[in-house]
Amino acid sequence: MPAFSSSTVRMKAPEDAVALPVREPVDLAFWALDAARRRVGEGGDERLIEALAEELREAAADARTRGPVTAFSYVPEPRLGELARVELSALVADDTYPTMTVDLLRRYLTTPTPISFRPPEAEPRELPVGPAVRVRHAYVQDADRDGTGTILETCAYGIVPDAKWGLVLLTSWREQAHTDRLCTLTDGLAEAVAVS
Question: Is this structure's pTM higher than 0.85?
């Protein structure tokens, strides 16, 4: 059993977010339709509900592939769909890396990839739950032959509440006009992470 399993990790859900069922055994299509109906509101347009339900189903299925502790689809305006995805994951120290450190998480989060759009930016932070590193990164997704694709921005925190395990809080989005707002949202979420 991982060292963090005896701890309780809490994260405040962003306002206007839909909690994604990343660990619960549910029928995603049924869940997504119900979640979309609740987010849009009573008497909402059925086409909007169906479109949002499909987006939420895809978001939940995608998040499940990474196995986070918890995940949210941030939907401040249902007619525009998901603005950002927020995931909180746990990383456990192992034989290769027996101690979890901020530097280890910094290296993990700043490793360039073949689809990195620009070099990642990292800065140390101190959070109520422990030392951390904040990393901004951008990737080119679905690039065509010319290298043109969609930019995926991320703001992540690598958090070390304990030497045996760490947390990664990751917010990702495609709408560049909302970058400052979504980084501020991520900063607030990181400040509110609690472990008991």
Answer: yes
